[in-house]
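Exercise 4. Each item below gives a protein and its sequence. For each, produce the structure-token representation.

Item: Interferon-induced protein 44-like (Oncorhynchus tshawytscha).
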Amino acid sequence: MSFNFGMVPGYCPNFSAPVLLGEKPSSITLATNLLGGDGRPDSSKVRKGNVINAPGGFAGLLGAEQWKSKMESPWREVAWTEDRRETLMESISSYKPGCEALSEARVLLLGPVGAGKSSFISSVQSVFTGRFTNRAMVGSSSASFTKKVELQLFNIRGRSPEQPTALVLCDVMGLGDGETTGLTLHDTLAIIKGHAPEGHKFSPEQPVRSETVGYVKKPSLKDKVHCVVFVVDASKVSSYTKGLGTTFQQLREHISDLGVHQVALLTHVDQVCQETARDITQVYNSRIVQQTMTNAGALLGMSTSYIVPVKNYSSELDVDENTDILLLSAVDHILQYVDLHFQDCAGTYPKLSL
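Answer:
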């Protein structure tokens, strides 16, 4: 059986892009390219009278001097303190699934190639080890490693290898614009339902089926995915194709039918806002990040309340307290929806201890 990512009847994704008045879509310029060194719009780059509808909040304002990238008060409150970091680490380290039969919560990361799925896994692990650990084989070229790998399960370790957390993050090849350029809808659902074995190498020409080596014919709750996390790159939200938007929408519809909750990570937020790049604690004071998140919500067909921004570790050798807080907050957000799934399943699995 084959599954195609066709357009949903009556649905037309709304991808707002930064367009200057009088310019054709082919000459679209990112709003972040119009910023000066201080993180604010550079009047030499913005023609007087232009009205810019861009990720970041130029919308409807005339001239760079009338726009401020930094908001007076944050649109989400975060305690950027060592105590908050320790509280989050302890909460995640001691987390237990709300089911006597389960020792681990399984979370699947889905997103296009290069969105930062593997980097997120390595970054979260790095928080607990106290030093950057490239555990999930993160690539730096356009040919992301996740194009080449099979289904991989990463049990996030606690403060020591002898103290693993109950969180398992599943990494898989990136999504594409259709059935021939990435993980297919059929195989994605096979993973979520628990049929796909760990280590399986996916190929559009060889979908997961009962004849597949290692195929799990009668998956238990522990074999299934308990939450799906979509991962999108903040610096590419406005340039993602409509085909990818359709892929997201189709996936969301089918995953929802399975009763699995979904959230999203907005990665690389430091690449769309200079003030956030200089100081990650400004992420929730940034109009650019806020508007980019709104655009990501439109791409995914998801309320922004399900989306959290993150900055993954990349070239750093040591971890940073505030980056850790953002990463741990994202994990905490994910685990809340894992728990919701277990609550929803309480009637089906009587051993759920909620």
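Check: Confidence is low (pLDDT under 50) at residues 1-32, 46-67, 139-148.
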